[in-house]
Amino acid sequence: MDGGWTGMKVAQLAVSMIFWIALPVTFRALRVLRKEVH
Question: Transmembrane residues, as ranges (predicted)?
């Protein structure tokens, strides 16, 4: 059993989860900022 491979898989999963959570939040923040600028 390779612990390093499992850790890499878990890290990849965590990164993708963070990405999919951060992406809509970032778009919403950009939209709010754009609205405040104009």
Answer: 12-30
Instruction: Determine the Cα–Cα distance for residues 38 and 26; give it in Å rounded to an integer.
Output: 19
Side chain identity, residue 9 = K
Residue matched to tokens 């898989």: 9
Distance between CA atoms of residues 26 and 19, nearest Å? 10
Q: Please tell me the pTM assigned to this model.
A: 0.52
Rg from Cα positions in the chain: 17
Q: What is the pLDDT along the chain (38 residues), one digit of tens a residue?
A: 566 788 899 999 999 999 999 999 999 999 999 998 87
